[in-house]
C-alpha cells in the first residue's frame, strides 16, 4: 500500500514565500490567513492547501490557529538573507528524519538513475494523494528541495543520488526495514507457508522494481543468503512465470 504523505501544491519558490510569511510571526502566536495573504501575496485557498505539508514536516503547528516553529523561523530568516548553505542544511535536517523521503531516496538508489518525470510520478503515486496537476507540481517541489538538501543531483533530465548521501540511504533503508515487525505469512509456490520474523541481528538487501501499473514489487534477501538460496529464488520466480503467464524460462 502507498504511504500517506501530504504533498505541497505549489512550486518551490511559492513554498519559500509561504515559509517567509509564516516566519515573520512569533513562536506560539498564531498567524491569520489575512496576514499571510498580505505578506506573501498568495491566495487563502493556495495557502490552506499547502498547510498540511508544512505541518507534516514541522514548520508550522497543528490546529486551526497555526504558528511558526523555531525551524520555520530559522528557515525563513535564511531565505530572507539568502544564506544558501543554511537553507540547504535546514532542509537536509528536516528530510533526514522523514521515512517517506528515505523511501524516495531508496527508489533512486536502487535504480541508479531515474528520469525526472518518472521520479515525479513515483512521488505522486507513493504519496497516495491523487494524480492532479497540483500534486505533480508539489512532487516537483519535493525534488527541488531534495536537490537543495544535496540528497540528489540532476543531470540531463536524470536524477541520481548525491555521492555523499549514498551511505546514508542504505543505512536509512536498513533501519526502516529492521524496525518493522513482519508477521504476514508468505505463500510459497510449493504450497508451504512460512512466517517471516524480523530479527535485529539479521540484515537484508532490498531490491524493488516499479511495475507498469505504478505499483512497487520488492524482493527482500537475507544478507547471509547462499548461492544455492539465490538459485532457489530464481527457480521460484520461474515457476510463477510459467503458471501465471505461460512463459518458457528454460
Description:
The chain is an alpha+beta fold and 250 residues long. It has helices at 12-23, 33-40, 44-56, 70-80, 84-96, 99-111, 116-127, 133-148, 166-179, 227-245; strands at 114-115, 152-155, 158-161, 185-187, 193-195, 204-210, 216-222. It has a 3-stranded antiparallel beta sheet with strand order 1-3-2. The chain has a two-stranded antiparallel ribbon with strand order 4-5. Strands 6-7 form a two-stranded antiparallel sheet. Strand 4 and strand 5 form a beta hairpin.
- Largest beta-sheet details: 3 strands, antiparallel
Mean pLDDT across all amino acids: 80
**Helix amount, in percent?**
40-55%
Order of strands in the sheet with most strands: 1-3-2
Secondary-structure content class = alpha+beta
The total of helices stands at: 10
User: Which residue ranges are poorly predicted, with pLDDT under 50 across at least 5 consecutive positions?
Assistant: 179-201
User: What is the β-strand count?
Assistant: 7
| C-alpha Rg (nearest Å) | 22 Å
Helix-strand sequence: HHHHHHEHHEEHEEEEH
Q: What distance separates the N and C termini?
A: 33 Å
- How would you sum up the global shape? elongated
Strand percent estimate: 5-15%
Amino acid at each position: 500500500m502507498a504511504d500517506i504523505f501530504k504533498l505541497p501544491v505549489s512550486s518551490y519558490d511559492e513554498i519559500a514565500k509561504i515559509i517567509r510569511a509564516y516566519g515573520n510571526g512569533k513562536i506560539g502566536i498564531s498567524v491569520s490567513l489575512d496576514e499571510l495573504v498580505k505578506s506573501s501575496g498568495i491566495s487563502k485557498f493556495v495557502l490552506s492547501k499547502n498547510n498540511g505539508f508544512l505541518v507534516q514536516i514541522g514548520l508550522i503547528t497543528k490546529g486551526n490557529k497555526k504558528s511558526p516553529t523555531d525551524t520555520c523561523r530559522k528557515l525563513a530568516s535564511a531565505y530572507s538573507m539568502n544564506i544558501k548553505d543554511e537553507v540547504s542544511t535546514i532542509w537536509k535536517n528536516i528530510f533526514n528524519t522523514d521515512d517517506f523521503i528515505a523511501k524516495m531516496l531508496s527508489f533512486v538508489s536502487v535504480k541508479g538513475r531515474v528520469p525526472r518525470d518518472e521520479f515525479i510520478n513515483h512521488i505522486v503515486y507513493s504519496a497516495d494523494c491523487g494524480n492532479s496537476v497540483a500534486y505533480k507540481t508539489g512532487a516537483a517541489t519535493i525534488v527541488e528541495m531534495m536537490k537543495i538538501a544535496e540528497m540528489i543531483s540532476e543531470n540531463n533530465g536524470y536524477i541520481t543520488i548525491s555521492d555523499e548521501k549514498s551511505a546514508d540511504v542504505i543505512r536509512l533503508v536498513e533501519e526502516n526495514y529492521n524496525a518493522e515487525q513482519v508477521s504476514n505469512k508468505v505463500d510459497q509456490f510449493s504450497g508451504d507457508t512460512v512466517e517471516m520474523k524480523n530479527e535485529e541481528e539479521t540484515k537484508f538487501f532490498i531490491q524493488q522494481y516499479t511495475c507498469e501499473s505504478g505499483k512497487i514489487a520488492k524482493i527482500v534477501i537475507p544478507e547471509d543468503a547462499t548461492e544455492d538460496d539465490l538459485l532457489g529464488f530464481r527457480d521460484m520466480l520461474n515457476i510463477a512465470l510459467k503458471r501465471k503467464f505461460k512463459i518458457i524460462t528454460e
